Amino acid sequence: MNERRLVVLLPAVLLALLVCGCANRSTLPPDQNDPSQAALRDSSGSSGNGYAVIHSFADDPDGAYPKVERLATVNGKLYGTTQYGGLYNKGTVFEAQPGGTERVIHSFGKDAADGQQPVAGLLNVDGTLYGTTLEGGTQSLGTLFKITSSGQEHVIHSFGSGNDGTFPKAAPVLYDNVIYGTTSSAARAGGTVFTMTRNGHYHVLHFFGLHDGTAPVAALVVVGKTLFGTTQSGGKHSAGTVFSITPEGRERVVYSFSAGADGAAPSGSLVQVGKLLYGTTNTKGAYGVGTAFDMPLNGPVKTLHAFGHSYDAGSPVGGLSYVHGWLYGTGSVGGSYSFGALYAIDTRGHERLVHSFTAPDDGARPLGTVILYGSKLYGTTWVGGTVHTSIGGYGTVYTLNPL
């Protein structure tokens, strides 16, 4: 079975597991008579929150399967990536109007040097978008690229030509006019933090090892003069870490997850609110399907919420966005229909389910968080949508009102 065929089948397998209840979204059964759970269910439907799908992806020549953690905006339009679809089935960069009109501005994979399979969001730098692809480039190990809003794309670095890291999965960030990013692996290490100057000078700032984490897959966040990030594995307990790194390359582990009540496998980016950082873990915690946490800049992590009880969201892949006093995120499973949910948590840990995805029409398995643009929230789901197929749809862009 070729790779394209295998990945295309994954959503169908996932949806089948969710329908039969085989996906472990909770270790506790729903309590139909629990008033608090009834309130949770009542607040999670589409009634009153303005939820609407503004685009359903349709595959070639349109995109398919967006894994973007958060959308970017340029001049009143939304921009993101899809891992597959496009003219060559190697992924796309797409543009969407807040009102719903969508177009592909670049199809990856036209030639061997171009990137393939973008799985991260985009960084807007003065109207030019920067991003990464998981594969493709001259070594087939990923690229760093830039693209204009009109679709002029240029690969500025192909990974794997030396010990410079491979398979980037996170969006780049900008600090002091220098681009910072991560690769999820390297030839002799568990990933890297890299820099790229605006004139094209690439430098590996740090190589990860088991002791300080492996597999950084989330975008970095700038706090003062320091960058913070997460690794999905490695650390003291092999369950992932929160780390900090300076522009000079001084890296330290701020916290090692224990795979206990504090969770494991953080895969989303952190967000700063006041003097604290907030984030999520994808698994473990009290119910086995992840946590939301906060932490001061020097640690340790404190669990704000354990996902997975009853109709709650579960297994968050993306991070959190802070909007009007609420931390928004998504669970890739769970919710009232088991197809994933959008939730909001305040800084004290009180959680509300904002929307439960029903699949297929309004989307399923959200892998990223939302952004606020104007007065509305916007996000994506990995599968589902109104383009009905045997595999459950190719994903969506959606909007809704904030709380």
Spans where pLDDT lies below 50 across 5 or more residues: 1-43
Strand order of the largest sheet: 1-34-33-32
The residue-averaged pLDDT reads 90
Fraction in helix:
under 10%
Task: Please count the helical segments.
Answer: 2
What kind of sheet is the major sheet? 4 strands, antiparallel
As a whole number of angstroms, the C-alpha radius of gyration is 20 Å
Q: Would you count the extended β strands for me? A: 34
Descriptors:
single chain, four-stranded antiparallel sheet, mainly beta, 34 strands, 403 residues, disordered N terminus
How is the topology of this model organized?
Blueprint: H1 3-20, H2 35-42, E1 52-56, E2 63-64, E3 72-74, E4 77-82, E5 84-85, E6 92-96, E7 102-107, E8 115-116, E9 123-125, E10 128-133, E11 135-136, E12 143-148, E13 153-158, E14 173-175, E15 178-183, E16 192-197, E17 202-207, E18 221-223, E19 226-231, E20 241-245, E21 251-256, E22 271-273, E23 276-281, E24 291-296, E25 302-306, E26 313-314, E27 321-323, E28 326-331, E29 333-334, E30 341-345, E31 351-356, E32 371-373, E33 376-381, E34 396-400
Antiparallel strand pairs: 1-34, 2-5, 3-4, 4-6, 6-7, 8-11, 9-10, 10-12, 12-13, 14-15, 15-16, 16-17, 18-19, 19-20, 20-21, 22-23, 23-24, 24-25, 26-29, 27-28, 28-30, 30-31, 32-33, 33-34
